[in-house]
Each structure stands twice: as C-alpha cells, then as structure tokens.
Amino acid sequence: MSRGYVIILHVMLVFIDDSGDAGFKFDKGSTSFFVIACVIFDDDLEALKVKVAIKELKRDLSFPDSVEFKFHKSQENIRKAFLEAVNKYSYRVRAIVVDKSKIRSNELKHNKNSFYSYVIKLVLQNNNNTIINAKIRIDGSGDRTFKKSFLSYLRKHLNSKQKRVMKNCRLVDSKSDELIQLADMIAGTIRRSYDTAKAGTHASPYKKIIKKHIEDEWEFK
Known about the structure:
Order of helices and strands: EEHHEHHEHEHHE
Low-confidence stretches: none
Strand content: 15-25%
Helix content: 25-40%
Strand order of the largest sheet: 5-4-1-2-3-6
C-alpha cells in the first residue's frame, strides 16, 4: 500500500509601493525624498495572516471593508495602530531612499515614468540575493502602454540565465489589496523619518515600531 505525500511549496511574495512623488519642481511642492519600499514575505501563509490582521483592524476601528489605509491620509493614532497590528508577523523590508536633489540625469529629472521605473529596478536589482523567483505586486496605475513597457523593462533587467529575481510581476490596485496598503504605510513611515520639516515627535515613533523588520534601507544619492 503506497502512501501519499503532500508537498507544500512556499512562494516568496513581494509587495511594493512608494512615498513621495517623482517630480523635481521643488519650488512648486515636489518632495525632497522619494522612497520605494518592498515588503517581502518568505512564506505565503504569513502574508495571509497579515492580510487578515489588517482586515480585523478595519473592523476594530469600525471602518468599512472598502477603506484603504494610506500613510499620508491617516492620523497619527491610525498609523501607530496599523503598524502595531502587523508588527508580530514575519516579513522583511528592503527600501531605497532617494534624495532627489542629488539626481543629475536629465532623463530621470524630466520623465517621471523613467525615474519611477529606474528606482524600482534599483531596489529589486540590488537585493543582495534576498529576493529570488518572487511573485511581485506593485501599486500601479497609468495607461496600458506604460504598464506594458514597465513590466518588460523590469523583466529585462531583473531576470537572466544566472539570476532570476521575479517569477512574475503585476500592477495591482491598492484599494483592493491590503498588502499593498502595508507597503504604502511602510514607505510613508520611512520617508517621514527623512522629512526634517516634520521630524521629532512625528518621525521616530512610527519607524521605531517597524525597525526590526527593516533588512536594508539604502540611501541612494
């Protein structure tokens, strides 16, 4: 009599969002810093637990299920409650922080799509072999042509015969994805710590909560 065995293969999941803007008109309100945060789950079951925790937080706060958590739209107590609600779970954060005043390339300064694509490529490409064959989900909007060229650009630069960073990549709507919302809250937390105008009591409490999850915070200048 033969025995049946069930093999469970865990999938690496990466959720990506940004904080700040891709503009360079600092005299008209463009942010000084631009942050891309990658939230990495080495276990898809852990990702599911976090998703449920975020949904439960909405219920605890008496928010409708349709509410989208966004760092820049949330009050201080909501930000803290969110970060604390997901803190006990296992996930890694890799982020790139760009001081835009140090960018010299005219292409990057005048083409927002090029700048956005380049920064995401950098953070995924320079992952110190910690992101392998991952399912990548990125908060994304924009026209179909840009989406197609963006995904093609990432595949070209991230995958080779020697190294495969992504298994597949999709642009998703953050309104319907709690884990993209997590990436937004993390990206916002990191950028806030660089915002000298709002430093002090507003900057450190958030980052202190998630500090243990930050695997790499690369200041690109």
